[in-house]
Specification:
229 residues, alpha+beta, 8 helices, globular
Length: 229
C-alpha cells in the first residue's frame, strides 16, 4: 500500500483562483502530492508529518501492518488521529531541540520536491486564504522557500514584503524579487533559493502580505537531528 501517491497534474494561476472558490471540497493532504512512503522519511520527518496528518491519512497508516513501509508504532498504539498527533508532538518536544515546535511545520513536508511543494502550497492556500509559506533544504547552506498568497477576489491588491531576516546571505535579492512581483491580490506558488550565512545556525524570515498578521519562518539547521526511541 502506498499512501504517498505520485501527482502528475499542474496548477496554474486560473486553477489557483478556482481553488479558493472550492476550498471546502476536499482536504489538502501532503500524501496526495508526494511520491514517497512513510518509511522513506527520516525519524524527525515522520514525527512532524504525524503531527499534521489528516484523519484520512491516519486511517491509512492505521491499516498498515508491522513490516509495511507505512506502519508507525505511534499510530498503531493510538485510537484516534488527535491522540496520535499529540503523541508524535510529545516525541518531538522530547528531543529538546531549540525551536522544534516551529521546525515541525517545515519538517512535515520538506521531503516534497519543489514542484510537489508548489502544488501542495497552492492547495493549502486555496483552503486558507492569506500568505502560505513552506520550504525544503537542498543542502545545509541552501533552503528553497516556497510561498503563495490568495485573497478573496475583488478586495484589493497587496504587496508581499520581507520585513526582517537573520542568517540569510541573499536577503536583499529575495526582497528585490518580492518588489518585482509587485501588488497582487493572488499569485500561484513561487520558489526562491535562500543561502544561509552560517549553515550550523537557523535562518529567520519575517514576511507580511498587505496588512495581514506577519509570518515568522524559522529555517532549521540541517541535517535534521537523529530520532531514537
Amino acid at each position: 500500500m502506498r499512501i504517498f501517491a505520485r501527482t502528475g497534474f499542474a496548477l496554474g494561476a486560473a486553477t489557483l483562483l478556482l481553488a479558493s472558490a472550492s476550498a471546502n471540497a476536499a482536504a489538502c493532504r501532503v500524501t496526495d502530492f508526494a511520491d514517497k512512503q512513510l518509511g522513506d522519511l527520516n525519524g524527525v520527518q515522520q514525527l512532524s508529518f504525524l503531527t499534521e496528518m489528516t484523519p484520512t491519512e491516519f486511517a491509512k497508516i492505521k491499516a498498515a501492518s508491522p513490516g509495511d513501509p507505512n506502519y508507525h508504532e505511534i499510530v498503531a498504539a493510538s485510537e484516534t488521529a488527535p491522540e496520535a498527533r499529540n503523541a508524535a508532538y510529545d516525541k518531538l518536544i522530547a528531543l529538546k531541540v531549540d525551536h522544534v515546535a516551529g521546525y515541525r511545520k517545515i519538517w512535515a513536508s520538506d521531503f516534497l520536491t519543489d514542484e510537489q511543494m508548489r502544488h501542495y502550497a497552492d492547495c493549502v492556500s486555496g483552503r486558507y486564504p492569506g500568505l502560505t509559506v513552506m520550504g525544503r533544504s537542498v543542502d545545509p547552506s541552501t533552503f528553497n522557500l516556497t510561498y503563495v498568497h490568495v485573497t478573496p477576489i475583488g478586495i484589493e491588491k497587496i504587496e508581499t514584503r520581507l520585513l526582517a531576516s537573520g542568517n540569510i546571505a541573499n536577503a536583499a535579492e529575495f526582497e528585490a524579487s518580492l518588489e518585482e512581483l509587485g501588488p497582487r491580490d493572488n499569485y500561484p506558488a513561487r520558489t526562491f533559493t535562500l543561502k544561509l550565512i552560517d549553515p550550523a545556525k537557523p535562518g529567520i524570515l519575517l514576511m507580511r502580505a498587505g496588512w495581514e498578521t506577519p509570518r515568522i519562518i524559522t529555517i532549521p539547521a540541517y541535517p535534521t537531528p537523529d530520532y531514537l526511541d
